[in-house]
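Researcher: Here's a chain I'd like modeled. Treat it as a single chain, no partners, no ligands.
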Amino acid sequence: MLHPDPFRDIDRLAAQLLGASPGSARVPLAMPMDLYRSGDHYVLHADLPGADPDSVDVSVDGGVLTVTAQRSERTEHDVQWLNSERFTGGYMRRLSLGQDIDVDHIAATYQNGVLTVTLPVAARAEPRHIEITPGAREETKVIEPTDPSDQHTTT
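Model: Modeled as a single isolated chain. Structure tokens:
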């Protein structure tokens, strides 16, 4: 099972307190993502509009999946901006991975501004049916004391 980054809300609050509003040139809006399970794998789709394809990076360290990307600064110079809402800078999103993810076989693609990460479920985490085989029935033995002094009576 995947878990969202618990620090994301704290980061948003800190940015608001420090005067940077989400979606500004300094602070991008959250990286929107969808996550679902399909059979023996999870699929994550993350929107990274305008991100430089070579800057998109997916890594796993200590059970945490990290997605980063960079959007380059605008190249327009000597212009008078009337409105500037498209941020430049970096995206980052972290997800805690459960023990049921096969981290050695995670795959990712990036096409048309959408990152798709496939996270296979580890074979050890898949549900299995345990076959019950008939076995020999063990006899129950009663052990009786052989020495009368071993018997204790309570009055």
